[in-house]
Amino acid sequence: MSKLFNVAVIGATGTVGETLVQLLEEREFPLLNLHLLASSESVGQSLPFRGKNVRVRDIDAFDFSQVQLAFFAAAEAVTLSYAPRAQAAGCSVIDLSGALPADQAPRVVPEVNAEVLASLAVPVQVACPNATATALAVVLAPLRSLLTVRRLSVTACLAVSGAGREGVAELARQTTELLNMRPLEPRFFDRQIAFNLLARTEPIQGTGHTRSELQIAADIRHVLADDALKVSATCLQAPVFFGDSLSVTLELVSAVDLLAVQAALEAAPGVELVDSDDYPTAVGDAVGQDAVYVGRLRSGLTDDAELNLWIASDNVRKGSALNAVQLGELLIKHYL
Amino acid sequence: MSKLFNVAVIGATGTVGETLVQLLEEREFPLLNLHLLASSESVGQSLPFRGKNVRVRDIDAFDFSQVQLAFFAAAEAVTLSYAPRAQAAGCSVIDLSGALPADQAPRVVPEVNAEVLASLAVPVQVACPNATATALAVVLAPLRSLLTVRRLSVTACLAVSGAGREGVAELARQTTELLNMRPLEPRFFDRQIAFNLLARTEPIQGTGHTRSELQIAADIRHVLADDALKVSATCLQAPVFFGDSLSVTLELVSAVDLLAVQAALEAAPGVELVDSDDYPTAVGDAVGQDAVYVGRLRSGLTDDAELNLWIASDNVRKGSALNAVQLGELLIKHYL
Ligand SMILES: NC(=O)c1ccc[n+]([C@@H]2O[C@H](COP(=O)([O-])OP(=O)(O)OC[C@H]3O[C@@H](n4cnc5c(N)ncnc54)[C@H](OP(=O)(O)O)[C@@H]3O)[C@@H](O)[C@H]2O)c1
Ligand SMILES: NC(=O)c1ccc[n+]([C@@H]2O[C@H](COP(=O)([O-])OP(=O)(O)OC[C@H]3O[C@@H](n4cnc5c(N)ncnc54)[C@H](OP(=O)(O)O)[C@@H]3O)[C@@H](O)[C@H]2O)c1
User: Fold this and answer.
1) How far is B134 from chain A (nearest CA, A)?
2) Inter-chain residue contact A279 with B200, CB threshold 8 Å
3) Best substitution site from A10, A13, A219, A323 to test ligand 1's pocket, by max atoms within 8 Å of Cβ?
4) What ipTM score was computed for the predicted complex, to two decimals?
5) Which CATH superfamily does the domain covering A5-128+320-334 fall into?
6) Nearest residue to A10 (alpha-carbon basis) of A93, A70, A77
7) CB contact, 8 Å: B106 with chain A?
8) What's the pTM?
9) What is the mean pLDDT of residues A66-85?
């Protein structure tokens, strides 16, 4: 019999945490005991796992020496508080919050830079990149041998679930208010998100960019190991519950061979290419699926050294929970 | 007393047509008789104008020699059928449909290339550019003396009203079905638009681009008189009733002076610049307003010869009806 592991999920009651627990079951993660952790507010709740209800416990009282691996799927502050404790107890950490610095916890997308996992110290610390960067990396990696990208320009239309349960609840509430002709008072978002688009998902930083936009640039360069890549990113909040849509322009050093790009994407792991007479959408295709969907592949309108494409991806799955579980599968193979 | 004109509005019962009629009233267009035209289906309807109800008439029975100016705010096919008739009757034409070729009907944005109007033959034919191109031109024109744009990359998140009354009705219907947990059958759009984003607004052409994307590139080059400008455009359909949102990246030949750009935009006609600690939205700011709103002005994340910005604009007003009425105001000054 192969080895079984004790695992903790922090933030188990959240949008990402619940999906992560489902994926551990679906993908038959070699689990002995599963510990579901959240804040003290969730104590008493339980989640279904392998036909049983597993109780949610308070992270504060948790002894990390009981587990070999912990998935941190709560806010950044929670990772920053508890990951050191986990590590001190010899527990490896997969950070889904992006809180740990990249030099301590490299950002890894299994389809792209799994080789990074070969050289880490135990207990391991590794992180999922920003969800948009992950989707981009899955699509760009198989094209590396075909084309040299000078600039990547992405407009990411992000689902409200990217902001967790409260984002989802707010879009539903606002939409209902508006359809019932009741006056709208924005609460969770800073203004009307229903039937509207917000120009950013977070407050801006000093330079005018948001944290997610900075993360996209840093993470995509890190994962593709390409520090010279120019990145332009705009993250907007779309009135969509689940699934991110990315409009991408790649500026290349030479004319693009569309057929070769198509062939490479068709063969690429984790990618589903949709014919150019059709197109994928977040809700209709990507949500609930493992693959990152690519469509509207075309060379530039006015420049044949340009490639345009559209990506639809499940922000909660490949954007976070699925990528983390894949990392877990690799970690136990290499280290645990 | 100054001269008064007889004017026809074709497509008066449509999304653009109704707004156009309102604007003719609001802006005190020097009108003697207003003729509202639509298809035979609308005969019997009427629209309010200057405190009276004006009856809608069938375009088929209309004698264009009764008017000096006709606004074509119906489908392209309607312009192609009836604009020659108008012209033969000595009536000047403002084409809001983009049907007439640019060499016969130049695309004009009054704030940008009004000088084109000085050299046309009477009866005049002139057209509004694609709505996205118009918003872009209003914002880029005041920056021409400050920066040289090598490439303009835009992701246009377009409101369903861009597809007319049927687009608006379909988003409302789909949203209600979904909130009431009823099964969804897309009708007007080819799939679910409620709480989703569609990767295009129209079928693609041979090269992989849509008609609107091709129009944006052609119209922005034409209006800015810059044939060397590289343009990359993606038009996506957003679940928004009114108001377009544009995410824009400009690649420049040299580092950008943000303060100078800010000052130029603050002084520019038809532009409302929003501070970078805030941002405009289509629904919250642009809809119902004449100005094109600009926000999230910032230099590139990884390249200081890059400028990123966000534009929110009323697709029905400046995108179409307002621009057309402004053109009408100039035409009567110059020609009629
Ligand atoms: N949603 C996405 O698409 C997405 C994508 C990529 C990355 N992420 C990242 O994933 C993480 C979780 O996001 P989410 O969307 O799942 O958020 P969420 O739906 O708001 O859930 C937050 C989770 O964190 C738990 N939590 C809150 N305070 C805690 C504390 N003090 N100690 C322990 N647990 C605590 C919550 O438990 P209680 O019920 O007890 O409050 C809940 O389980 C975030 O870092 C987010 O940035 C999310
Ligand atoms: N909506 C926008 O944001 C926008 C922006 C820029 C440009 N445009 C362009 O403006 C034009 C009108 O768009 P819209 O959004 O207002 O469309 P719409 O809401 O669908 O209205 C269409 C109008 O055209 C009339 N029409 C249809 N068939 C006709 C015919 N055979 N003869 C005369 N009139 C006819 C309709 O009258 P009935 O009621 O009799 O059918 C209605 O008044 C289109 O060319 C569109 O591309 C629209």
Assistant:
1) 19
2) yes
3) A13
4) 0.96
5) NAD(P)-binding Rossmann-like Domain (3.40.50.720)
6) A70
7) no
8) 0.97
9) 98
